[in-house]
Amino acid sequence: MKSEGKFLVDWRLLTCICVGFWVGSAGLVSAGSCGPAVDSATVLVWNLENWFDPVYRPPHDDPAFTPRGEKHWTWERFRQKRNRIVRTLLSVEGRWGQLPDVVACCEVENARVLHALLDETVLSKADYAVVHHEGQDPRGIECGLLYRTSVWTLVSSRAVQPVPEGKPLRPILYACLQEQTSGRYCHFFVNHWPSKRGGTSDRGRIRAGDALLGAVDSVLREDPGAWVLAVGDFNDGVQAAALRRLAPRMQPILPGVAGAGTGVEGSVRYRGRWDLIDLVLVPTAGPLAPKAWVFAPDQLLEEDPRWLGVRPLRTYVGPRFVGGVSDHLPIVVRFPKNT
Predict the structure, then answer these.
(1) 30 assigned to some structural domain
(2) N or C: which end of the chain has fewer CB within 10 A?
(3) Residue 28 domain-assigned?
(4) How far is Cα 265 from Cα 274, in angstroms, rounded to an integer?
């Protein structure tokens, strides 16, 4: 099973049809080569699907993810998932020749679970540091970021809070990192927009998009040539109203597929249908033109017995523990440091 540099053709056609004004020559970025390049920055973007520790900490409402809860979530199962996440980061090094410089995560409970990836694993020999800000999500579903201190220096970070829609919306994690060789600043915005669960309207995602645009505009007013990457789980495709509102100031980067990935056509799969909701956006007029891939190694996939083909290997399917990581596949983003 091998598919390297393959385009997500269906998604690309859908993008051209539905949001043609977004897809100009700058937006159609080729998947290109997956080979290592020491002068490139590598970023991994991943929704880790309920990456919680097994400790119940009110006011966070997550009793299901405890040893006595509905999921019977134990430290043994926590460590198993942790090790699979670490193995995936090492797989990135195996394919692209380097560990990710930056790891942007969604659905993490707290800074503790991020530090768990770095403590008592082989990543303890690397030089990652954690960026995290506590949010107001009732279940403690937040965003986090890891960065390598030998490559980047943290300049500042904060939570960008969208205007509430009835209840508080998850903040966007902002981190400004300085690349140590070039001295250039890269502004990361890690997004986890409201889901469509229960038929939720677009309003929450539109408010999140407005907050993102406001924060990006603020950066570009100070430094029009800044590196800016908006990444994460947007819970919608680029044809959706909330994403269309970002045009023409932001544009999506079209990914290919790297890894085993036979039949992989997106980052998530629901009832046999692939979709791409884990996105990479850059300013239309900015200097960055990164390349991106949906990363689909064997260890992140399983056979789909009902709809055939393959699907992401989750931690749970309903109440049943199956031992995977997430219902999302990660996205790998690369761009030259001398841009």
Answers:
(1) no
(2) N
(3) no
(4) 6
Range of the domain at 78: 6-19+41-334
What pTM, to 2 d.p., does this model score? 0.89
Task: Please write the tens of the pLDDT for every residue from 282-320.
Answer: 999 999 999 999 999 999 999 999 999 999 999 999 999
DSSP string, 135-157: ---TT--EEEEEEETTTEEEEEE
Report the distance separating Cα 333 and Cα 329, nearest Å: 13
Beta-carbon contacts of residue 233 (< 8 Å; ≥ 6 apart)? 47, 106, 107, 191, 192, 193, 277, 278, 328
**CATH number of domain containing 306:** 3.60.10.10
Residue 33: inside a domain: no
Backbone angles phi, psi at 229, to 5 degrees: -130, 120
Q: What's the domain count of the chain?
A: 1
Residue 225: inside a domain: yes
Place of tokens 């680029």: 238
Residue ranges in the chain whose pLDDT is less than 50:
1-37
What does the pLDDT read at residue 246?
Answer: 95
| Residue 160 and residue 171 in contact, taking contact as beta carbons nearer than 8 Å | yes
What the block records as the tokens of 329 is 């596949």
Query: Which residues face 312 on adjacent strands?
Result: 301
- Strand-pairing partners, residue 232, are 191, 279
